[in-house]
Amino acid sequence: MNVNRKTIFRLKQRIHETDTESGRPRSGRPRCTTQRQDRNLVRNHMNSRLLSASASSRQTRGRNNQRISANTVRRRLSTSGLRARRPYIGPLAYVLVAHTSAPS
Q1: How far apart are CA 18 and CA 25, in angstroms?
Q2: Cβ pair 20, 11 in contact under 8 A
Q3: Tens digit of pLDDT for each residue in 25-72?
Q4: Pick from 13, 69, 16: which is nearest to 41 by CA?
Q5: Predicted confidence band at 93 (pLDDT cuts at 50, 70, 90)?
Q6: What values do phi and psi take at 15, rounded to 5?
Q7: Per-residue pLDDT for 74 more than 80?
Q8: In 3D, which of 73, 42, 43 has the Cα closest to residue 55?
Q9: What is the domain count for the chain?
């Protein structure tokens, strides 16, 4: 196999101790949101293009009913390939907003 015997021994020992080959859990700061909350954040931003990260952070409560920061929302969106940016407001955007909000 062209691998040191000690490497194989340590791998077998790790599998025996943890029942997995990936090893023990690492230390670090726990995440303030669950995976379900992360998916909901992404879904809300996909459905509502005008939703800002700060508005989303005010609506979302993390674990233990904590407030999450707007930067946390931006990081969660960034890992999903989205960017939380303010939408462009230009001459055409004003026309579209006026057209869509005008009563029929």
Answers
A1: 10
A2: no
A3: 778 888 899 999 999 999 998 888 788 899 999 998 988 888 999 999
A4: 69
A5: low
A6: -65, -40
A7: yes
A8: 73
A9: 1
Task: Judge whether 79 lies within some domain.
Answer: yes
> Which domain, by its residues, includes 53?
33-104
Q: Is residue 27 part of a domain?
A: no
- Indicate the pLDDT class of residue 103, thresholds 50, 70 and 90: low
DSSP assigned state of 64: G
The model's pTM: 0.59
| Nearest-angstrom CA–CA distance, 24 and 38 | 25
Q: Give the pair of three-digit tokens for residue 55.
A: 């508005």
Instruction: Give how far Cα 36 sits from Cα of 60, 69, 75, Å.
Output: 12, 17, 15
Rg (CA), the chain: 23
